[in-house]
Design brief:
about 350 residues; alpha/beta; Rossmann fold; Helicase, Ruva Protein, domain 3; Zinc Finger, Delta Prime, domain 3; 3 domains; five-stranded parallel beta sheet; two-stranded parallel ribbon
């Protein structure tokens, strides 16, 4: 069934026995991941989690239903998490929903799926499934999300600082979480000892200094400038920049481009679309951002965001190969941009 936000939050906080499958999808993948965290908390710290990817479901469509019906070896609760699935996993999800027994909840965290997706239709229509689409939050919602994230960690975040953090991160929940967590650690805040965040602390930890170093690479990659990219990559290695960390400002810019592109497609006026972004566009970067908005159409920038998100996950899970994977993805994105210039 198709769920609104209140319904999906309530169901994930206390999974109903008659719901076997939660489909969390949409352009705000960080929002989907945050919702899945609610199920993780509901299952408890001792619960056994089984992670399956699309290849595992494709090779053995019956495995998902088996995992959902299996008991934990240690007698604890058990749940299944799926990442990055699409219509190729439809046979496995169908088998799960038609199975005679499936006591363990299954949650799928997906990116943007097409409205015509058979997986979305199945989850919307089936009584034992719930589907919810997460959209990128607007500026006000992003500010509120930053405040809520801070509150959970014992940090009181004034509205003006929340606005700075949401602007800095392009309203992405995962990036906002990272910035807020740095503040929590810096100020030694905790739920049992709340602390007021200050502008001075945010200034001290601001990612803007790092962004100054990375900004030329961001513009090179998203501007399809291979020559500039080949200059910037060695420079960043010299200053010791971690390639995984480079992905954050790239993701922030890509999501900003997606928001501006959506407004541009709606109004047909690039100046109006840029003005609507407000302070999210640094004045020195307006020219570069406008060129990048024109370069990437909505489907193109959505694919860029997906590739950067995949690269970020890979950089965390890969040890020695992390930097190589990141460089490969950045080069692929830059080459696509160069072809479309």
């Amino acid at each position: 069934m198709k769920a609104n936000k209140g319904h999906i939050e309530k169901a994930l906080d206390a999974p109903p026995a008659d719901i076997r499958f939660f489909l969390l999808y949409g352009p705000d993948e960080s929002g989907s991941a945050a919702l899945a965290k609610r199920l993780e908390r509901a299952m408890g710290a001792g619960a056994e989690r089984v992670d399956l990817d699309p290849s595992a479901l494709r090779e053995d469509p019956a495995r998902l239903a088996d995992e959902a019906a299996s008991f934990s070896m240690f007698g604890d609760k058990r749940w299944v998490r799926l990442n990055g699935i699409g219509d190729e996993s439809l046979p496995a999800i169908t088998a799960l929903l038609e199975s005679t027994a499936a006591g363990n909840p299954v949650v799928a965290i997906c990116g943007a799926l097409k409205a015509t997706s058979k997986l979305v239709k199945l989850a919307n229509d089936h009584a034992a499934a719930m589907a919810f689409i997460s959209y990128q939050p607007d500026a006000r919602e992003a500010d509120q999300i930053a405040v809520a994230i801070a509150r959970e960690g014992g940090l009181r975040l004034p509205t003006d600082l929340a606005r700075r953090i949401s602007a800095l991160t392009g309203g992405d929940r995962a990036l906002m979480t990272g910035e807020v967590e740095k503040l929590i650690l810096y100020l030694d805040a905790a739920p049992e000892r709340p602390v007021e965040a200050t502008a001075e602390a945010l200034d001290a930890l601001s990612a803007e200094n790092f962004d100054d170093d990375v900004s030329p690479l961001v513009n090179a990659v998203l501007g399809g400038d291979l020559k500039a990219m080949n200059h910037e990559m060695p420079r960043l290695r010299v200053i010791g920049a971690n390639m995984g960390a480079v992905l954050r400002p790239l993701l922030t810019r890509a999501m900003l481009l997606a928001n501006i592109r959506a407004e541009f497609d709606r109004s047909g006026r690039i100046d109006d679309a840029m003005d609507a972004a407000g302070k999210a566009v640094f004045w020195k970067e307006k020219g570069a951002v406008a060129r990048q908005v024109r370069l990437w159409d909505a489907p193109g920038i959505a694919r860029v965001i997906q590739r950067l998100s995949d690269a970020e996950r890979a950089s965390r899970s890969s040890r020695n190969a992390g930097d190589v994977l990141v460089r490969h993805e950045l080069l692929a994105i830059a080459r696509q941009g160069a072809r479309d210039r």
